[in-house]
Structures are given as structure tokens and as C-alpha cells.
Amino acid sequence: MSGPLIVLVGPMGVGKSTVGELLADRLGTGYRDTDADVVATAGKPISEIFYDEGEEHFRALERQAVRAAVAEHGGVLSLGGGAVLDEETRALLADHSVVYLSMDVDEAVKRVGLNTARPLLAVNPRRQWRELMEARRHLYTEVARAVVATDERTPEEVAQAVLDALELPDAPSGRENTA
Question: 3-class SS at 48?
């Protein structure tokens, strides 16, 4: 199988980027984030894309970014929180080692906060987050080979749990694996 070694999915604020970078370092491979690819392509932050061109335009850019990353990237890949909404994206992920990083609403509030520039959480963030998760949780689970809860865990603990769930060892570097 070609493509990413690990694909991380989950809601905004769950730690996909932080954990993804840690995993890439531990595995001695590259890291890529499709949200960063969208920002680079559009030349502006995601919140501005939403406000200026709308969610539909953002989702089209996201779909293109995921398609390119799955085809080109062989390391650790993080997808934006809503990428799994697209049927084509879910099909692309079918043969890959996808890990759903999960968290509950209280953890999300701690991490994402209530005063953020996240366009989908602009009004009543706690309720919006719950509604987003009701719409997406089954899709995250559908594409995932493993689910790793991030609540009350450090990024290092989450990265180790991902490696354990996929039965992947750290890259040889003279370090011992401690969990």
C-alpha cells in the first residue's frame, strides 16, 4: 500500500497536528496537515475562506488537499475535522491506517475554548461542538482502524497509544519505548 503511514482524523482541537508531529518524529518520517495545505493554496486562514467564499468552497479545497496528500505523502497525515464528511475522502481512506482521535465535550471546551476563530463554533460553541460530533462521530469511526481517546492524556501519551493501537514500533534511534 502506498500513501500515508498513518492518517489522523477527529474533531477540531483534539490534537491531530501536535500528535501527528510527534508520531512523525518517533517514526522518522514526514508530517503533513491538509488544513495547512488548504491555507497555503488559498493564501488565507480557514476562517477567512469560510467567511469570504463559504463552507462549500472550503470543502472543495479540502477535498483536493486530501486527494493530493493521500497520493503524495508517505508519512503521518492529519486531516481537517470535517474532511470525513466527503464520501470520496472516506473512500480514499479505506486502505490506510486511520486513527480517530476522540475527546468529550468538556475536553473540547478546555482545548478549543469558547472564544476562538473557528467558524463552525462561532455561536454557542458547546452546543455547536456537540452537534458537529453527532454528525461526524459515525464517519470518524467508519474510516478508522483504531480509536484513541485523548481526554486527560498528554500528546506524548496519545502518540504512544496510536503506535500501540496500530502495533507500530518507534523508529530506531537508541531511545527506549516507554508507555
Answer: helix
Closest CA to 73 of 151, 5, 26, 167: 5
14-23, pLDDT tens digit by residue?
A: 899 999 999 9
CA distance 131 to 137: 10
Burial of 172 (0-12, 13-18, 19+ CB in 10 A): exposed
| H-helix or E-strand spanning residue 32 | strand 31-33
Three-class SS of residue 120? helix
Question: pLDDT digit string (tens) for 1-11?
Answer: 589 999 999 98
Between 118 and 75, name the one with better pLDDT: 75
Cα–Cα distance, 140 to 123 (Å, whole number): 24
Q: pTM of the prediction?
A: 0.85
Q: What is the DSSP letter of 15?
A: S
